[in-house]
Recover the amino acids of this structure.
């Protein structure tokens, strides 16, 4: 246990004023009991950046009979354009009268003709639009940017058995509280927070005006870049996958459906994933004191090691954090 004082039976009584765990690890091989007025489980070394996704950009082409947002959009497979005195071998004409001033589906028109003066009126047969003199073509490209974690060093409070925390304020920021059995939190205020993982859509593209200039004279004019404000939103999938701000309960080797951590004051119900192990059953270790600060040493995290038979004075030794995780330390179970 971590708390206030030890009585004559070596049991923790009272609460510590404050426990600060900064990018370090508090770990027990049995049950872990923490009693403190304020617990800060903080990641001091998290750095994120918005980066362009490796996914190919999304593209869209659509047409309107007038410029501006909110107008009816027509897709390329709905639109035909009349081509002046042009015969395209192997491409079916979509209007009567042979191949003189014939209408062709947009998708069948070669690239080199699409923005030339040979294109004349636009029609959308399925919508009853025939021979529209002026039409607008929009080519939109959507690039995707996502939050990427460049550096992180989460704090971790873990036990192979149960984790029980009693206090007024619990701050878990970009860090983890992990138990082999259950996590039980009784606190007036639980702040389980993280850096927000963001997805951003950035738009670009081009706009063309196909217009009638005079009788039997048509032009295609480039009207500039397509512009639209960036769309930014919190991506819950990214938050789950890449940001550490978790309270996790574990069970033997099989994944369970999502459950809830028991938060006794009912102010905060924390959903958790159950994964992994519950095999170590050693007695809980004892650490006491009014104010406990655990800090990482530069890039190396700190691991507190305790002894159930120590004399009052609490922490018996301070060792570098092992390279293995708690899951790797657990004995392997054979099927």
């Amino acid at each position: 246990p971590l708390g206030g004082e030890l009585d004559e039976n070596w049991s923790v009584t009272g609460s510590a004023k404050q426990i600060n765990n900064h990018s370090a690890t508090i770990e027990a091989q049995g049950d872990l009991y923490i009693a403190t007025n304020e617990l800060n489980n903080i990641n001091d070394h998290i750095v994120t950046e918005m980066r362009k996704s490796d996914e190919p950009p999304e593209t869209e082409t659509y047409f309107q009979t007038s410029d501006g947002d909110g107008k009816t959009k027509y897709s390329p497979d709905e639109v035909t354009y009349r081509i002046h005195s042009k015969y395209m071998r192997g491409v079916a004409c979509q209007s009567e009268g042979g191949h003189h001033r014939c209408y062709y589906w947009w998708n069948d028109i070669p690239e080199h003709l699409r923005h030339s003066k040979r294109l004349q009126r636009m029609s959308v047969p399925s919508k009853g639009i025939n021979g529209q003199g002026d039409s607008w073509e929009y080519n939109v490209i959507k690039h995707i940017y996502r939050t990427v974690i460049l550096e992180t060093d989460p704090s971790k409070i873990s036990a192979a058995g149960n984790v029980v925390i009693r206090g007024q304020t619990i701050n878990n920021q970009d860090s983890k509280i992990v138990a082999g059995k259950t996590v039980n939190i009784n606190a007036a205020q639980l702040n389980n927070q993280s850096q927000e993982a963001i997805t951003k859509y950035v738009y670009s593209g081009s706009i063309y005006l196909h217009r009638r200039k005079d009788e039997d004279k048509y032009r295609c004019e480039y009207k500039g870049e397509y512009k639209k404000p960036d769309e930014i939103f919190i991506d819950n999938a990214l938050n789950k996958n890449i940001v550490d701000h978790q309270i996790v309960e574990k069970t033997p080797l099989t994944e369970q459906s999502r459950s809830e951590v028991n938060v006794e004051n009912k102010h905060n119900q924390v959903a958790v994933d159950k994964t992994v192990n519950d095999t170590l059953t050693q007695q809980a270790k004892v650490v006491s004191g009014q104010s406990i600060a655990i800090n990482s040493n530069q890039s190396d995290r700190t691991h507190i090691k305790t002894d159930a038979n120590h004399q009052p004075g609490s922490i018996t030794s301070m060792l570098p954090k092992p390279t293995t995780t708690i899951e790797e330390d657990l004995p392997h179970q054979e099927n």
